[in-house]
Amino acid sequence: MYKALLKPLFFRLDAERAHHLVFDNLKRAHRVPGTPALLRQLYDFQHPSLEREVFGLRFRNPVGLAAGLDKNAEFTDELGALGFGFVEIGTVTPRPQPGNPQPRLFRLPQDEALVNRMGFNNGGAAAAAARLRQRRNRNLLIGGNIGKNKDTPNEQAAADYVACVEALHEVVDYFVVNVSSPNTPNLRQLQEREPLIQLLQQVQERNKALPTPRPLLLKIAPDLTDTQLDDILLIARETQLSGLVATNTTISREGLTTAAERVTALGAGGLSGRPLRQRATEVIRYLHQHSDGALPIIGVGGIHSAEDAQEKLAAGASLVQLYSGFIYEGPGLIKRINHALV
């Protein structure tokens, strides 16, 4: 029903407007008695063999929602009813911020891709924490993807990440440090060796001092060289990271079938979707092989089918996440992946 009826209607609208329309209506429908049970019957698929224990957490299935779709932790109960094994909220910053000017989210239907330059638009860490305290589905694991505010200098970035950890640690199950978004000025400079070590050490120090330390992961860009990936692995060991998320969106525009004039006209932003599939898998395989499989990886990038998910897992990912594939394929993709894995 989604691809035949709903998707053509939504794709006639501006991408960001369609996003709000879909999720606002999902929340309204979820309040109707019987709807959550119906959604679970349609889309949820459970089997003991799907369970995974990764960085000390028990996931009921390995298919999660990537950060970016539920930035403010507004729809975790609704997304849980669609069959996700875990949901990553954010990216959350300490203070609310509006993000970049609109329009800032674009579809490339020929490539089954998205371009976004959202800019960490969110209501702030305190608001997200308050919503998570009110959620009903306590069995759904929640990841907290955290970042710095746009006006925070890189030299003071660690304080922003620490503030997010302090605000969210009681209501999330793991943290993901996001220094790889291309849509916050100079953010990716924090992926360089020395700044990244300093940042992660400060965040980890505060995390470990809390009554309930959480697994701490790092989300990396697909545009890193092998040498930079080697540095990431060394840094992960030095700062005692629990895992990596590979990968974020790419700044590359290579291999697209959409007319170059159209792509150029859209301007800057991170590309996600099918064109990212191969590179994301290459990064996962490299990290898995060069860490001897010792570092858990959440694989994300270009998963539009069960075969795509299996490819990521075969390359060394312990879990996978959906973003653009969820938009292009609809919620039925979650069930198809889990069914194929069984």
UniProtKB/TrEMBL annotation:
Presence of keyword Cell membrane: yes
Predominant place of localization: membrane
SUPFAM superfamilies referenced in this protein's UniProt entry, alphabetically: FMN-linked oxidoreductases
A Pfam family matched in the record: DHO_dh
Residues that coordinate or bind substrate: K71, N116, R117, M118, G119, F120, N178, N183, N248, T249
InterPro entries in the record: Aldolase_TIM, DHO_dehydrogenase, Dihydroorotate_DH_1_2, Dihydroorotate_DH_2, Dihydroorotate_DH_cat, Dihydroorotate_DH_CS
Cofactor: FMN
Annotated residues for binding of FMN: A67, G68, L69, D70, K71, T91, N145, N178, K219, T247, G273, G302, Y323, S324
Pathway in which the depicted protein is active: Pyrimidine metabolism; UMP biosynthesis via de novo pathway; orotate from (S)-dihydroorotate (quinone route): step 1/1
Active site positions, chain numbering: S181
Recorded GO CC terms: cytoplasm; plasma membrane
Cofactor binding annotation: Binds 1 FMN per subunit.
Subcellular location: Cell membrane; Membrane
Membrane topology of the entry: Peripheral membrane protein
Keywords on record: Cell membrane, Flavoprotein, FMN, Membrane, Oxidoreductase, Pyrimidine biosynthesis
Subunit structure: Monomer.
NCBIfam families referenced in this protein's UniProt entry, alphabetically: PRK05286.1-2 (NF003645), PRK05286.2-1 (NF003648), PRK05286.2-5 (NF003652), pyrD_sub2 (TIGR01036)
Function: Catalyzes the conversion of dihydroorotate to orotate with quinone as electron acceptor.
Identification of the protein by name: Dihydroorotate dehydrogenase (quinone)
Gene coding for it: pyrD
